[in-house]
Amino acid sequence: MRDRKLEKQLEEKRALLREKGVVLTTPRLIILEYLFENPIHPTAEEIYNSLKRRFPSISQASIYNTLKLFTKLGVVTELMIEKEKARYDINTTPHAHFKCIKCGRIYDVFEVPLPQREEISGHKVLTTQLYFYGICQKCVQS
Ligand SMILES: [Zn+2]
Ligand SMILES: [Zn+2]
Questions:
Q1: For the whole model, what pTM was predicted?
Q2: For all residues of the chain together, what is the average pLDDT?
Q3: 1 pLDDT exceeds 60?
Q4: I need a surface site. Which of 21, 64, 82, 85 has the fewest CB within 10 A?
Q5: How far apart are CA 44 and CA 67, in angstroms?
Q6: Ligand 2 centroid to 110 CA: how many Å?
C-alpha cells in the first residue's frame, strides 16, 4: 500500500507528463513509480535490475530512453555526482547532494540553498547542481 502523500506526488508527475503530451505507457509508469518508491538516487542500471524481476519484458533501452525523456521534461533531475554514471532524482525541488565516499550513499541536502538563476552572464541556465563529497554521519561513527 502506498501512502496518500506519495500517491498525490505521483499523480502530479503523471499530470505533468500528460500536459506535455507524453503517452503514459507501462514502462514509463512503472519507472515513475519505482523512482518514488526508491528515492535513493538510483542509476539506470539499478532501476533496470530491480524492475526486470517484476517486469521481465522491460528493456534496458526503454529505461534509458524514459530517463532521458523525463530529464528533458523536468520530471526528474539527472545528477552527475559520480563520473561513471548518471543518477536520477524524482525530487525536483532544488537541493544539493552529499556523497559518502565510504558507503556510497547519496544524501539530500536542504540546508544549503542552491542559487536559483534562470540566466547568468547572458547564458540560459538549465540546471544547477551542488555536490558535497565526504564521510557521512553513519560512517563517521562506525
Ligand atoms: Zn557513509
Ligand atoms: Zn536528491
A1: 0.89
A2: 94
A3: no
A4: 21
A5: 8
A6: 9
CA of 142 to the centre of ligand 1 (A): 9
**CATH architecture of residue range(s) 96-141:** 2-Layer Sandwich (3.30)
Ligand nearest to the CA of 105: 1
Domain with CATH 3.30.1490 in the chain: 96-141
Q: From the CA of 39, which ligand is nearest?
A: 2
**Ligand 2 centroid vs 57 CA: distance in angstroms?**
29
* CA 125 / ligand 2 centre spacing (Å): 19
